[in-house]
Each structure stands twice: as structure tokens, then as C-alpha cells.
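Please, structure for the following, as C-alpha cells.
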Amino acid sequence: MISTDENNLTLAKSQNSVDAINGRFYGKFPYPWPPAYFDRIVDPTLETVMLNQSVGNWDRCEILPHSRIWVAGCGTNQAVFAALKFPQASIMGSDLSVSSLQIAANSAKHLGLTNLELRQQSINESDYRGEFDYVICTGVIHHNSDPQIPLKKLRQALRPSGICELMVYNRYHRTWTTAFQKAVQVLSGAPQDTDLDTQMDVTKRILRSTINSSMAFMIALHKEMPEAAVADSCMQPIEHSYTVESLEALLNDSGFEMLVPCLNQFDRTSGNFIWNMSFEDPELGRRYDALPDSRRWQVSNLLLLERAPHLWFYIQRTDCSRARKSEIQICNEFLERRFRRVNVQREIFTQNGDRSYALSAKRHNHPSTHTDVLCRTVLAAVDEHPGADMRTILGYAKVKPDFAAVQRLRLLLATCAHPYLIAADMVC
């Protein structure tokens, strides 16, 4: 493996050796740390409906409530979250780290989960063939010597009609972390000396130092973070990162195609969740809007740099019989649909002092009041004009239904991240 400046690949000698390195790394630093609480929606089908709407299915669920789901590289809690979100589905979570799986199993026990199976397994060693309707793999394949090998394993495991949720690192997000990781390796004697205690000591010493560069921002950000987060950002031993262009090439070479971006918790928190830009120059805007989806995302990736969203996408097999929909097509269908408000309840499991979890007696209305003023206006118009399609609703709300406005409202009202509206004709 040839080392490159934009990636951290010094230790990426082979798939097996990297699996062993990652197994030791996440065995010592299980990631992420246990959350303060877990929650569960009382309606067992809501998350399934929202998943389908997120990829542009408005009439019927392509991914059904009783699906089989693989969380590949589940860490300490991602498979647990999946089991709570999809209670009628069969969830299988796999990971290299025994420590991570033990934490997940302990959480599952306290939560009373019966739909979750956990396996210690490398994606590279898996041999599933068309078994899963939905595969979740976020933040995993880029920690391999050759990410295409686990990606092809994911494709092999996915049913032809299935959906995969994939996240890899955005190259423009990883400049500081890649540089920091390499500095730690040099200062601690790695790759010859891969002692994790030494590397953590070096990392903490750097974080306590005053460095007059743009690295100061990352240092300030990580000083008070849990040790697992510090290790994952500052000490990860192998790390690829991608642009939209290189990710699309990797997916195409592996038999996948990009569907739409997945609005995730990190982009939602930062507010950087819109892939489509607006330009004051009319000619520039015309050129940009005329591009295919992935080329628009590429331009946004290049111009927004570290302010671009994560490379977190829904993808499907290229031999899927379901035709890919463009974002413009999905938005046009959104305008033609009638919607009803989501009004369900949410249960919360709070963490005790011994890191167990117990169900709170109080239930909460779900979703909560929307924080976006325009979205609240649209939701009020849905309430006032039942049976009206979204184009008519936007007319009442005095919203011009151009692509940028509709795309933003679709993401903020009818996706997994913001489950406020369900298409009236949706059947699961």
C-alpha cells in the first residue's frame, strides 16, 4: 500500500493485518461511549415509513417493517439503536471488537431487546448472500486496507431490491485529524511501536500543548471529549477519506449506485445538511441546476470544503429493478402528495449509576415542536387544509415551490431525521 498525504495508510499492509489492528484498537477504545439515554417510538412502523420516504418511496414501503437488517461494524450501540427503531425487524450487528459487543449486549439486556443478534466478525470474512433488506455501515469501510473489499461484501449481503446506508469520511473534513494521527504515530514511534498506551499519552500531551496553527481549533475541540472520542479522531491507525467524485467511482466499481444523501445526526446538529447550493449569478445557477445529482454534489463538495455535509448516502445495487430517482423527481413527487401529521409517543430509557438502563414512566409526544419557523408554518397549513397536496399547501404558506425550497422542506419534514409528515397514500 502506497502512503499518501491525504490519507493515513502507513499501517495498511493487508486486510487481515488491518482487521487485527482495528480489533486491538477498538478493543481498548470501544466506540462510541454509552449514551445517557436510549429512546423508542411507540409506533413500531414509523421509522420504516420514514426510511422509505427518505429515499423517495411515497406510495408503498420497499423496505418492510419485518425486514432483515445488518448493522455492519456496529460498535457499542448502533445495532441497539437499530433494534429500537425497527422493533418488528430482525437485526444482526457485527463488529471486530469484543469489548464493543459486550457493551452492546449489556445495553440490549437492560432494554429488553429480543430482535437483536450480535456477532464478532469482520465484514471482510462475512459470506452473506442476498440475506438483508437493509444494511447499515457508517464509519467502517474507510478503516480497511482496501475499502472496496468490504464494500463488495456489503453488496453481496444485500438483496437486489435492498437499500444500504453508507458513510465514509469526507476528505475535506479530515485534514486536521489525518495530520494529527500521523504526528502521533511519528512522536510515539509508530508504526514500529504500536503501543496504544504510548500513543494515548502522546495524544494527551499534544492536546495540552499550545500550537499556533489551525490545529488549535481541533485541540480545543478534543480537550474535554471522552477518551474513546479522542482515540477515534486523533489515533485511528488506518483511515481513507473521499470526495463525492472518488466515492462515486468506488461505488460504481463495486456494483452500487448513489441514491440520495442521508440526513444524519452530525449534519443535523451542525446545520450543514443541504448538498445543493444557491448562486446569485443566474447563469451560474442555471449551469449548476442542470447538472446530474452527483455532479451537483461534487461541485458543492469542492466549493463548501469543510462546510460540506458528511459523505453519508443511501445506495442500492446497480442490478436493482427499482429505477433510481433524481432529487428533482423526488421533490416533484413530494409536491404532488397529500400528507398527514405524525402524532405518536416516545419512550425513554435513562442511564443509571451502574450504566444500566431503566424505562422512564413518562412518555413524550413525538415529534417535538419544530424549531424551524417556515416548517411550523407549513405544518399549520397541513392542519388547516386536510386533503390538500403539498403544492397547494405551499401556496397557502406563501412558499415558492422551487427546487431549493422544496428540497429543504422535504428534508426537514418527511425524512428519518425529521419525521413530521407521512404521505397519506403510504402503505407498508
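The mean pLDDT is 94. Residues 178-234 form one domain.
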